[in-house]
């Protein structure tokens, strides 16, 4: 696992997904817009959960809501090259999961950016505004524990 000061490498991640970049992903400065990084983090985590569980996680009785996100930027990336997203889990608690997502573009072994993404599980039976924190579903725990590093 990389520490807070080192630049992560491909070896730091367990699961992988490749996404294509789009013209609209770049900002006026010609590199990937900051908001797009966060969309990619969300996609990496939730696509993994849906594939690993075989279910649409939006409809589980308990859902993961984002409690914290951050991004460390190391170099510019953007359209037209695809982005490889590496996913790893740093911690699985009773009701929360801490993920790290590395973004790679081109042949570099070093991440262009790394995101931190924290899910906290809440009750999904009563809708927004009335969602107490609850233990995560077993199906989610089974999907993320193999990603622990």
Shape: globular
How many helices?
Answer: 2
The count of β-strands is 5
Q: On the 0-100 scale, what is the average pLDDT?
A: 95
- Reading the helices and strands in chain order gives EHEEEEH
Please describe the biggest sheet, giving its number of strands, its sense, and whether it closes into a barrel: 5 strands, antiparallel
Unreliable stretches (pLDDT < 50, length at least 5) are none
Q: Radius of gyration from the CA trace?
A: 16 Å
Describe the protein.
It is built from two helices and five strands, in the order βαββββα. The chain starts with 14 loop residues before the first strand and ends in a 5-residue tail after the last helix. Strand 3 and strand 4 (96-104) form a beta hairpin. It has a five-stranded antiparallel β-sheet with strand order 1-3-4-5-2, covered by helices on one side. Helix 1 crosses helix 2 (138-144). It has helices at 34-53, 138-144; strands spanning 15-19, 62-73, 83-92, 96-104, 113-123. The mean pLDDT is 95.
Briefly characterize the structure:
With 149 residues, the protein is α+β, with helices and mostly antiparallel strands. The protein has helices at residues 34-53, 138-144, and strands spanning 15-19, 62-73, 83-92, 96-104, 113-123. Strands 1-3-4-5-2 form a five-stranded antiparallel beta sheet, with helices on one face.
Which features does this protein show?
single chain, 149 residues, alpha+beta, 2 helices
């Amino acid at each position: 696992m990389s520490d807070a000061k080192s630049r992560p490498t491909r070896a730091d991640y367990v699961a992988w997904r490749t996404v294509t970049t789009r013209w609209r992903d770049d900002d006026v400065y010609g590199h990937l817009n900051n908001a797009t990084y966060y969309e990619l983090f969300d996609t990496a985590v939730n696509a993994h959960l849906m594939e690993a569980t075989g279910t649409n996680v939006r409809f589980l009785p308990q859902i993961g809501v984002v409690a914290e996100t951050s991004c460390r930027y190391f170099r510019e990336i953007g359209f037209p090259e695809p982005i490889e997203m590496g996913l790893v889990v740093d911690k699985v608690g009773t009701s929360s999961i801490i993920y790290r997502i590395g973004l790679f573009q081109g042949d570099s072994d070093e991440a262009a950016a790394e995101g931190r993404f924290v899910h906290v599980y809440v009750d999904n039976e009563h809708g927004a505004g009335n969602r107490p924190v609850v233990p995560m579903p077993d199906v989610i725990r089974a999907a993320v524990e193999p990603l622990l590093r």
